[in-house]
Amino acid sequence: MTRQGSDGAAYGQRGATEYDRGFLAEVDRHQPQLVRAERYAETWRRGPLEVTLNPLCDWYPPPVKAALQTYRQAVLDGHCPACGAYSRMTEGFWDLEHGETCTSSPEALALMAGAAVLEMFPAGDPDAPPEV
Ligand SMILES: [Zn+2]
Predict the structure, then answer these.
(1) Domain of residue 28, residue span
(2) Residue 130 Cα, ligand 1 centroid: separation in angstroms?
(3) What is the whole-number distance in angstroms between the Cα of residue 53 and the centre of ligand 1?
């Protein structure tokens, strides 16, 4: 498999140490395993990598659910099916940098979820959750 970041740089080429390359190789040798599931957080492990993900809740609006599903798949597989980004290690830190227009990036998900909350709890709705 050829790993590439969203900027087209193959992992390990820039800023990656021997440790980084070994870490990713070890991640690639394992399948994702669910370690702990709580109401709003799931902890997954894939070899030396441990990540916390939002669970897929049934009540999420379909577009949010679809984007979150793709995001979760990207993190667990190390490859985003929406934008093609691959996970990589840079100086000891694991990351998956989605493309700017990726609909499953954390930023896109936050915007989509925020818009969905506004739809579910329009301004002036007495049942709306408090402002954070
Ligand atoms: Zn992506």
Answers:
(1) 18-120
(2) 31
(3) 15
